[in-house]
Every structure is written in C-alpha cells, then in structure tokens.
Amino acid sequence: MANQDSLEPKKDYYAPMHTAEHILNQTMVRVFGCARSKTNHIEKNKSKCDYFLPSAPTAEQLQEVEALVNDVIDRQLPVTAEEMPRDVAEKSVDLSSLPPEAGDTVRLVRVGEYDVCPCIGKHVQNTREIGRFKFCSWDYQNGRLRVRFKLEDKNAA
Questions:
Q1: How far apart are CA 29 and CA 77, in angstroms?
Q2: For the chain, where are the alpha helices, taking DSSP H only?
Q3: At what angle do helices 15-32 and 59-74 cross, to 10 degrees?
C-alpha cells in the first residue's frame, strides 16, 4: 500500500481537519447507523458536516461521538492512500457518491483499520498530527443534523 504522500491529492484541504472529518464520518456511521456526510465544508479553523437522522440526537450522544473521535485520534493510527481500479474498489467501499467522470482509478484513504473511503483530499500521515476534536455547535431540523467542529491543541482542556 502506498503512503498518501506518493499519491497527489487533488483538493487542497487542511490535512488535520480533513482527516478528522473522515474519523467523524465513520464514528457517526457506527453510532447512529447513518450515511457518511455528503454535505460538508472543511476549513482550517472550523468545519461543518450534515447527517440525516430520523430523530435529534441527545447532547450526551454527541458528547459520546466527540469522545470516540478523540479516542481514535489518540490511537496514533497511520493514514495511508492507495489507488486502484474503480471496479476493484467498488467491491469493498461505497462509490455511489463518485461521479462517472471521476475516472477508472479510485484513491482510497485509510485511517488505520478504523475507516476507508474514496477521497481526493490531503491528509495527515498519522492521527497524532490532528489535535483534539471539539464540537462547537449543532442543530437538528427536518431530519438533518448539522455539526460544527474545530481542532484544538492536544494540551487544551
């Protein structure tokens, strides 16, 4: 498997935040059984993701998600990428969000054994580079949960 540095990312995301978004997505899938966020905005200082849920999560559930994301970050997992033919990739990951013009080769990004998904953005090499994940706010309307989050220094309280 190739390291992500050897494969040129096509989107210039802030790598720590973008990798945290991958971990958040997988955690939301595991905790709520929802789909990964297809609507998001990833920035260096603050980001947001939308998830579709049948009911509003409790504050305690979102605190659990925040703790789980930080637990994954603390595991110091390697983050790698590899390119493979689309027909091979679709046997192991959901490619439904990729447009046909994405081509016949897919770049899969892995966060240890925790998450794998197609992605064209920049990522850290190890989760220890991310920092501390923190929800800033959230709201739930008409089945859509929007979460806003930031990254803090590991030593922040």
A1: 19
A2: 15-32, 59-74, 86-89
A3: 130
- Long-range CB pairs of 6-14 (<8 Å, 24+ gap) are 7/81, 7/82, 7/83, 7/107, 9/107, 9/119, 9/120, 9/121, 9/122, 9/123, 10/120, 10/121, 11/120, 11/121, 11/122, 12/121, 12/122, 13/42, 13/121, 13/122, 14/42, 14/43, 14/44, 14/122
Structure-token pair, residue 70: 């930080």
14-38 confidence digits (pLDDT tens): 999 999 999 999 999 999 999 999 8
Q: What distance in Å separates the CA atoms of residue 58 and residue 62, rounded to the nearest whole number?
A: 6
The whole-model pTM stands at: 0.89
HSE toward the beta carbon, residue 72, CA cutoff 13 A: 25
